[in-house]
Amino acid sequence: MMETTIKDFESALAELESIVKNLENGSLTLEKSLALFERGVELSRYCHTRLEDAERRIEVLSERGEVGPAPASLDVRDVPDGPPDEGPQ
Fold first, then answer.
1. How do residues 2-15 score in pLDDT, each as one tens digit?
2. Mean pLDDT of the 43-62 span
3. Nearby residues of 34 by Cβ (< 8 Å), 6 or more positions away
4. What's residue 69's pLDDT?
5. Dihedral of the CA atoms 84, 58, 11, 41 (nearest 10)?
6. Separation of CA 25 from chain center
C-alpha cells in the first residue's frame, strides 16, 4: 500500500525518484502505473511548492540586506571585456 502523507521535501523527492524508476521499468500493470503516476504528480507539486516557498524566503532575506553571493548573472568574469579575475583580495 502506498503512503498518502508527505513528511518533508527530502522524503517526497526520494519517493518520487523511486516512482520514476518503477515506471521506467515498464513491468507494472496499467492500473498500477496510473496510480504511481498520480502519486508522482502529487509529490512533484509538493516539491515545487516547497521550492517556491524557499525561494521567497531567500528573496526576503536578500531584501533585508543579508550578505549573500551575487547571482551568476552578475558575474563579470563571464562578460566579454569584463575586468580580469584577480582572485581573492
1. 567 899 999 999 99
2. 91
3. none
4. 61
5. -100
6. 24
